[in-house]
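hiii, so i know i said id send this last week but things got crazy w the move. better late than never?? heres the sequnce for the chain we talked about at the cafe, plus the structure i predicted for it. fair warning i was half asleep when i ran it
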Amino acid sequence: MSHTTSSIDCYCGRRVVIRTTWTDENPGRRFLSCLHYDVGGCGYFDWEDPPMCRRSKVVIPGLLRKLNLVNGEVKKLEDEKKKLQQINKKLERSNKMLRRLVYAMPGFFFVLQLIWISFVAGKDEKEAGATPLMIA
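okay and structure toks below
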């Protein structure tokens, strides 16, 4: 990431940009460079920040590595969360369908009982009516 400054020009005559290096030797240290520094440019370079102490050169890269690991874990957890949310939506739809089915069951069983009662009553009537005929 870089941004232009308003007062310093590089050897090309353009405004220099402030960039940040993330090397182990200069982690987070800002420098001034030609806008086209990445692809050659005029070669203008100057440090914006003073040199870092030895301890900073050891601690900051370690912290950056840990931050990258944590960010990777966060990304994995976010992906897992999305998957679980999709599964949850499917389960909610299934649950809704099952509830409808459960609410409809008492009516189904009532109709089934009526059918059974009429079947048994019809059978009893047939048996009652058929018995005298068999005796005669």
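btw The mean pLDDT is 86. thought thatd interest u
miss u guys!!
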